[in-house]
Design a protein that fits this description.
Blueprint lengths: L1 H24 L5 H6 L3 H28 L6 H17 L3 H14 L7 H29 L1 H5 L3 H23 L3 H4 L3 H10 L6 H13 L2 H29 L6 H14 L11 H10 L5 H4 L1 H15 L1 H7 L6
């Protein structure tokens, strides 16, 4: 019964995603024609840069695994990352489902006594990525403040909502590395003691594993900077190039604001991996000072590039027998 509910929920989310994309497509006279008219050099550069984003994500995770003395090759790290992205599209659970699959495959590749450390590496990988994303979100809002102030009331509300999420997310992400300070608060310490009553409990092992990262702060700072530049800032450059490729006069700060806002909205599990909700948010931000008709093709091209890479993760799954269930 529970599985049926998960499948139905996934189908509902997929329908919402397709509905949003269809709605946006109505503002474009001919989506296919507009796609063909984009400057091929800008498009190919965008595809290359998105590949660099995925390579950086895989490299970041490999470094975090090494901090736990787990030596996974870059190829295996990239393969498992791509498979995680693929399954986040095709199974209920979205990104969480993708991480569960990635965890399952990772456990098969590492020593049995390193399972907890492997799980914690995926958790920290997510936290590092979120810290970089939320930090850049706040910066992009500051850089585009004049643009936001001249926008509609709905856009201002959206930006305020995302700014609040970014601040809360940044605080929560950083707090993971300062858990000892929070333990000074009696209520929090009481909860932790209850969860770690047994020294060999899973929660105890996870906290011990996270402490390893806390004691290797330089590696955490490095991976955050890596994510900031080559993952999130890079996607801003991708969106900017796509706008230039279709001849739109949009500044880099506006393109950066659009993609960062879109990626944060995509974290809300309304649609699979944020397809549709991300597109709607990007369109809304890019349309400041322009018509919807002029900008709707941009998020669709971005989504097409993203989907092409995510679906290619199936190749890694199908060609590696050791990774199959």
């Amino acid at each position: 019964m529970k599985n049926h509910k998960s499948i139905l929920f996934f189908i509902l989310r997929l329908v919402i995603a397709l509905g949003i994309l269809y709605y946006l497509a109505q503002y474009s006279e001919n989506v296919f024609k507009n796609f063909l008219e984009i400057n091929i050099y800008y498009l190919l550069t965008s595809v290359l840069l998105y590949g660099i984003t995925l390579i950086t994500t895989s490299y970041r995770w490999m470094l975090l695994l090494k901090t736990q003395d787990i030596n996974l090759s870059f190829f295996d790290s990239f393969s498992l990352t791509m498979q995680g992205y693929f399954f986040s599209l095709v199974i209920p659970g979205g990104s969480i489902g993708g991480d569960i699959v990635r965890t399952t495959f990772l456990i098969k590749k590492i020593p049995s006594d390193k399972k907890v450390q492997g799980i914690s590496s995926i958790l920290i990988d997510r936290i590092v990525g979120m810290i970089a994303l939320f930090s850049l979100s706040i910066i992009s809002i500051i850089l585009s403040l004049s643009l936001i102030l001249n926008s509609t009331k709905n856009i201002k509300i959206l930006v305020c909502f995302i700014a609040i999420i970014s601040l809360i997310g940044l605080i929560c992400g950083l707090s993971a590395f300062f858990i000892d300070y929070f333990r000074k608060i009696n209520f929090i310490n009481y909860i932790i003691l209850k969860l770690t009553k047994k020294e060999d409990s899973f929660i105890s092992k996870i906290l011990d594993s996270v402490n390893i990262y806390k004691n290797n702060f330089k590696s955490i700072i490095f991976t955050i900077i890596l994510s900031f530049i080559f993952c999130h800032l890079n996607t801003g450059l991708i969106l900017y190039l796509l706008t230039q490729g279709v001849g739109l006069n949009i500044s880099f700060p506006q393109a950066l604001l659009a993609i960062i806002m879109g990626n944060i909205i995509a974290l809300i599990p309304i649609t699979p991996t944020g397809i549709g909700t991300r597109d709607w948010t990007i369109t809304a931000i890019l349309a400041i000072g322009l018509s919807l008709k002029a900008v709707t093709i941009i998020p669709m091209i971005f989504t097409a590039i993203m989907l092409a890479f995510f679906l290619s993760g199936s190749i890694f799954f199908l060609t590696q027998k050791t990774n199959k269930f």
